[in-house]
Amino acid sequence: MSGSGPHKTTIREATCRVKYDMTGPDAGQIHFVTAMAPVKVVVVGAGVIGLSTAVCLAENLPNCSVTIVSQHLSPNTTSDGAAGILITTEFPDVPVDRQLRWFKDTFDHLLAIAESSEAGKAGVFLSTGCQIFKEVPRDKKPYWSDVVLGFRTLTERELKRFPHHKFGHAFTTLKCECMSYLPWLEKRFRNAGGMIIQEKVTDLRSLASHFDIVINCSGLGCCSFLEDVDVEPIRGQVVHLHAPWVKNFIRDADGKTYIYPGMNSVILGGTRQVGDWRLEVDEVDRQGILARCCSLEPSLRGGHILREWVGLRPGRRSPRVEKEQIQLQDGRKVPVIHNYGHGGNGVTLSWGTALNVLRLVSQCIQHPPISRL
Ligand SMILES: Cc1cc2nc3c(=O)[nH]c(=O)nc-3n(C[C@H](O)[C@H](O)[C@H](O)COP(=O)(O)OP(=O)(O)OC[C@H]3O[C@@H](n4cnc5c(N)ncnc54)[C@H](O)[C@@H]3O)c2cc1C
Ligand SMILES: O=C([O-])CC(=O)C(=O)O
């Protein structure tokens, strides 16, 4: 780490002191007095997962100093190119109630932004449309149906628009455009006293020697410094089309065809090529995307292409949100909290998994319960 010397404060030394208020308007309340030295937390990564996590920590833990160390910043992260729709799937290794909480916490957080005067600046807004199925799904009402707004089954008349599909849901969800949202989060982070260092991490241990707690939000990047054989790229290509008359989203449940109207363009997708590291736009993929999307929404044929983009989703069977401990050469044990592997759902789960990390960090520093947790 350049620009910071060895740091000797341990977490134990920095834990807060408790004061009991006997008088005044807060009588009977326990106050936690800021400790002598702040707990030094470092967040690796400044995509939607790293920035959400860093903001959550910086705004809720006054006795921590939070630093982001990231190789790339917005607009050069995978998150920047995400369609940003809030739709989730079911991960095999995470209890459903935990997944539900991740999604609901994110939805509620972003809904509040969408309803505020910050919506335009943050790039967060409501989006109504449908998800359609070529075969009737076993579970006609997914576990997340009560998180989104106005969830219902498509009528037969609505389904007639999609002759190759047998079933569908209509609902209102949120779209969070990271090209706006990430700079907006970054500003919020700096306002909360956070620091950002642009640097590649090659070894978690040497980073840990300068901090008390390490949070790993490096997405696919953790392949280079972490032995997690489950992480792999899932290539996604999208086309941005000028077609402002298209207002409602359409998503094929197979995840390979979607149409998402946004603030300045309609995003057409997509591809899901597992293990494919190519970042170049593929001509054949483009033709496939346009053909599939136009077959669902023929009016798109009147649009024109604004730009194209390829990103690599941080693929994993399930996201990894958990704590481990690493031991440094001097014997010091440093908690490392992982928050990566969100695949095609990083925006959808960003705030929920960030709050999960906040709870884990709070446990590490024996911070008092916070009403927002
Ligand atoms: C085409 C496409 C469409 C998508 N659409 C949606 C959608 O509609 N909804 C949705 O929820 N999700 C969507 N996704 C998925 C979403 O983009 C990802 O889940 C999300 O971006 C993951 O965020 P992240 O912060 O983990 O990763 P990233 O955005 O990749 O951020 C990782 C960060 O870690 C940093 N980093 C990596 N390695 C190192 C290192 N060694 N040292 C220092 N820093 C490092 C990087 O520089 C970067 O800042 C889409 C993805 C693609 C490709
Ligand atoms: O699948 C979608 O609807 C959009 C998305 O999250 C992705 O392409 O990863």
TrEMBL record:
<dbReference type="GO" id="GO:0019478">
    <property type="term" value="P:D-amino acid catabolic process"/>
</dbReference>
<feature type="binding site">
    <location>
        <begin position="343"/>
        <end position="348"/>
    </location>
    <ligand>
        <name>FAD</name>
    </ligand>
</feature>
<protein>
    <recommendedName>
        <fullName>D-aspartate oxidase</fullName>
        <ecNumber>1.4.3.1</ecNumber>
    </recommendedName>
</protein>
<keyword id="KW-0274">FAD</keyword>
<feature type="binding site">
    <location>
        <begin position="78"/>
        <end position="79"/>
    </location>
    <ligand>
        <name>FAD</name>
    </ligand>
</feature>
<dbReference type="InterPro" id="IPR006076">
    <property type="entry name" value="FAD-dep_OxRdtase"/>
</dbReference>
<feature type="binding site">
    <location>
        <position position="344"/>
    </location>
    <ligand>
        <name>D-dopa</name>
    </ligand>
</feature>
<keyword id="KW-0285">Flavoprotein</keyword>
<dbReference type="GO" id="GO:0008445">
    <property type="term" value="F:D-aspartate oxidase activity"/>
</dbReference>
<dbReference type="InterPro" id="IPR006181">
    <property type="entry name" value="D-amino_acid_oxidase_CS"/>
</dbReference>
<dbReference type="GO" id="GO:0071949">
    <property type="term" value="F:FAD binding"/>
</dbReference>
<feature type="domain" description="FAD dependent oxidoreductase">
    <location>
        <begin position="40"/>
        <end position="354"/>
    </location>
</feature>
<dbReference type="InterPro" id="IPR023209">
    <property type="entry name" value="DAO"/>
</dbReference>
<keyword id="KW-0560">Oxidoreductase</keyword>
<feature type="binding site">
    <location>
        <position position="313"/>
    </location>
    <ligand>
        <name>D-serine</name>
    </ligand>
</feature>
<dbReference type="Pfam" id="PF01266">
    <property type="entry name" value="DAO"/>
</dbReference>
<keyword id="KW-0576">Peroxisome</keyword>
<dbReference type="GO" id="GO:0005782">
    <property type="term" value="C:peroxisomal matrix"/>
</dbReference>
<feature type="binding site">
    <location>
        <position position="201"/>
    </location>
    <ligand>
        <name>FAD</name>
    </ligand>
</feature>
<dbReference type="GO" id="GO:0006533">
    <property type="term" value="P:L-aspartate catabolic process"/>
</dbReference>
<comment type="similarity">
    <text>Belongs to the DAMOX/DASOX family.</text>
</comment>
<feature type="binding site">
    <location>
        <position position="258"/>
    </location>
    <ligand>
        <name>D-dopa</name>
    </ligand>
</feature>
<comment type="function">
    <text>Selectively catalyzes the oxidative deamination of acidic amino acids. Suppresses the level of D-aspartate in the brain, an amino acid that can act as an agonist for glutamate receptors. Protects the organism from the toxicity of D-amino acids. May also function in the intestine.</text>
</comment>
